[in-house]
């Protein structure tokens, strides 16, 4: 399938085909409908009616989960691009395209969450357009601009799959568009890819800087000047966790050949990242003299150790040959990586953040419904896309050359 | 001897109805039921008049004067009718040795039973020489009279804690009755002047039941002095709403707003001025006529703190009206917590099931 | 195995080097803001406050804020428990061992404000006389100011479909100055130049050392605030709800880091160029390999 028009694709991909409206898909539709109800309340009666957020907890589930966690899970594309394009490991190319799709979806829905979350959503266009008013000191501005830009970049990165789908489709006009645009896109691709590497580096680290500002309100086990670096490393390994999980689930869900060997070969590299992350964290806590906090009977200490165990366990698994050899073992490690990464981000934004004694936060039913609905929507589009467009590789990929 | 008896001022002949009315008011003031008023009236009608010795020291006679100037009905007269006033320097027609004799006689006859009413402060400096009556020092007269008294009532701020004579620099060492009679129960009715009803209530209770009203640590009857003026002030709503007169005669002042900023001592002053009108004239008290309370009843406030200086708010109102700086973390809604836990549990469970299924599928593949 | 041990070690080494560099990033990359010469603020003397709440009432009137009606003791009162969407200043009570002290809360007008640092397109700005102003038309309602403020001052209109942030701006719309200080019957809230207020606060402590806690809160706390506080001798500021922030400006670390990384966008530009080159080269080699 790959011809001179799409020279970058060394591994053939193909649409899966098949029925869209499966029972699972219908279940997702139901979740989306429930979320729509909650959204109506949020937009008609204000955030207070639909959420449990308060003046103490201005950031809630939508920021901590949908945005901070969601974008990091969507970093699969970024993480794979580092391997393929920076470390020059072309053999991982089959994993890039689905990762780009999940990334594009994750970021798009994170953007949607931001739109739902901010109080004055009709003014959101001012952020990119009020350039003279940009506040260079605001880490959040950096995040906002980069995320907005990266959503566009991600869809560009994914666009070859769409153009390919059109080229092979029946619509003559779309075929024409695909034929004429594909070569141009290919020429620009290195710079798009480089942008796709630069932007997550910037905003994923800035997501850490965001929580460095409320210094007096963030618990000592999380508050450090290394937050940007930790968030960056965290995003990268979270991306790999997402790639492993996604590849395994789609292989089983769509009854496709598995890519176990290819995934397993990334094991040591991911383990190194996990250990780097945990080691840096603990050394930093020791240097700052806050390690005692980890031994107090508090929820903070509990979550700190939970994060640490969740990060170290998959690292050890991935360093051992046994877990790497089996799909289930690899999948388990991938899920643990996801849990570790997600928990760290979630904790930094919600658990470690304590505005004072007057406030408590636990997401409301409305917030949860909307978050679930967004995730459901994301999965729906993924399922639709892989069935209609050439996203997943057509043949089992070789693990090594 | 007869001439030493009280010569009533004005006409007598108060109707029984008026008499009962005053007794009821007095009983209510002390916190006794209406039936007590009847008993008081009966006792008085039966002629059981207790002997009263009324001493004057360093003072202006304002308390006596205000007592006598009550008019509708004539509380002053009633009080005087209620009791057998056996010695009172202002009201007695007699003078000199004659009256001193009357005092001695009254003390002898009513020993252990008579009510001693003290009006005015007693100077203690230099042996108490700064106030003498018939060659005797005030402090000695007071001590002698108090020795045989059944009950001692200090009327007015001077007698209660020193009042104006004790104002800084207090050259004569003017002191209140409780300070002179340490160890004795002295009912103090501070005020400048004291509200006659407070005296009437206290006296009636003693006459009728032989008991004294409940007193606070300064000897003040709780029925009259348990609360500060501020608590029951008719202008309190303005205080609560932050509406203050800024200066005399400004619009806020004319509107009857709170006088705190002009130096009202109401927040620190214990008295029932706002609840029990003076001389039955409604509004006839400082705050009522647009002047800040100057704290006449309160030692350390009246004649001590400058007239227009503001004071701290003494007792805070009900605590619930002030939000606390420190607050407890609200509890998490158990329903949302449950649903949240269920969602996380479902995701973790699904992940676990998925790993197991994948593992099983893998096993199956291995077996040919 | 395609990711060699060498690669892992290389990455770990680079990571450690990067970490060391990030940790060493000087917070001095940012010049610390100082008190503007014309800075104005409030001096609140807790020992003088009588809790009459005239300030709260007048503030609502001057800022046209609706009452925060809540049931209390069988009636409904305008009795806010804290700063909120309808309350820009509030009087709170601290009780301890039979003693009590009042506490007035409103925006502290920080010298180095975290909210201004947080705000993406300058809806919050440090304006004339150092007053932190809020411009509704630039606000997108992200609430990062709420997260950032160490005093939990900015409040959000949660109950509205068209919300905004509510925060004391020292009555900058009034010629007469802040309403709260104007009506205070006891002079417990004084409005003036921060430098003068600080001098006065110190005079008060020196004159009555037994009355006052020996510190003016806001002189240096969190980089200094334009609103200053005096407390009674028996209580600490923390108990009155003013956090111990240290003398460094609250945003100093975060902004120092941000500026060090993004100064002039040099680092991102260099990184982009390097990435572009590497991607172009690697992609070419990968394509060549494929054609072979």
Kindly summarize this structure in a few lines.
The complex is a heterotrimer of chains A (401), B (368) and C (292). Chain A has 401 residues and is mainly alpha-helical. Chain A contains 15 helices and no strands.
End-to-end Cα distance of chain C: 23 Å
User: What is the helix tally of chain C?
Assistant: 8
Radius of gyration of chain B: 32 Å
- Biggest protein-protein interface? A-C, 90 and 83 residues
Query: Tally of extended strands of chain B?
Result: 9
- Strand percentage of chain C: 15-25%
Q: What spatial form of chain C do the alpha-carbon principal axes imply?
A: elongated
Strand order within the widest beta sheet of chain B? 2-1-3-7-9
Mean pLDDT over the residues of chain B: 84
List the helices and strands and how they pair.
The complex is a heterotrimer of chains A (401), B (368) and C (292).
Chain A: H1 23-45, H2 47-50, H3 61-73, H4 76-86, H5 93-117, H6 126-129, H7 139-167, H8 172-210, H9 227-253, H10 260-265, H11 267-287, H12 299-319, H13 321-325, H14 327-351, H15 365-388
Helix pairs in contact in A: 1-15, 3-5, 3-14, 3-15, 4-5, 4-8, 4-9, 5-7, 5-15, 7-8, 8-9, 9-11, 9-14, 11-12, 12-14
Chain B: H1 16-30, H2 34-45, E1 51-56, H3 62-68, H4 75-82, E2 84-88, H5 96-109, E3 115-119, E4 122-123, E5 132-133, E6 136-137, H6 138-147, E7 151-155, H7 156-161, E8 174-175, H8 177-180, E9 186-189, H9 196-209, H10 222-225, H11 236-240, H12 251-254, H13 334-366
Helix pairs in contact in B: 1-2, 1-9, 2-9, 4-9
Chain C: H1 5-24, E1 40-45, H2 54-62, E2 69-72, E3 75-78, E4 90-96, E5 99-105, H3 114-118, E6 124-126, E7 132-134, H4 144-148, E8 155-156, E9 165-166, H5 179-183, E10 189-193, H6 194-207, E11 228-230, H7 252-262, H8 266-291
Parallel strand pairs in C: 1-11
Antiparallel strand pairs in C: 1-10, 2-3, 4-5, 6-7, 8-9
